[in-house]
Amino acid sequence: MSEILMPNHTNNLGRALGGSVLHWMDICGAIASRRFARRQVVTASMDHVDFLAPITLGDVVTVEGYVFETGRASMDVRVTVRAERPAADERRDTATSFFTFVALDDEETPTPVPTLDCPDERQRALRDRALEQRSRRRRDLAEG
Known about the structure:
alpha+beta, Thiol Ester Dehydrase, Chain A
């Protein structure tokens, strides 16, 4: 999904509010998991968020998410945020995190999701990269 960073999503320095970025990340992750499960989903958790670079007023913001692991009723989604200044042909990674969503049935109780299938090398590489990054991040946080 894409947005243009407008004044109502900025702080007094003209940079993106962290809460706005988190909101966009949550929505993007929900869309990815909802498409995967073909059901309504809810956010179960969000790992530590790394804000890597600022997003400035007028930047085009692209938020991407994909399911990289599944449980019985849950899906883990890697979400990345990039900012772009089209006039300067400049792009930069600005934030990343891992979310877990749970699929719901019509009674709003957790329901099974499809098994993740990565039929081609590109999809397997994305999955493996996300698994390694999440594992490394959790290990780094545990070590303090």
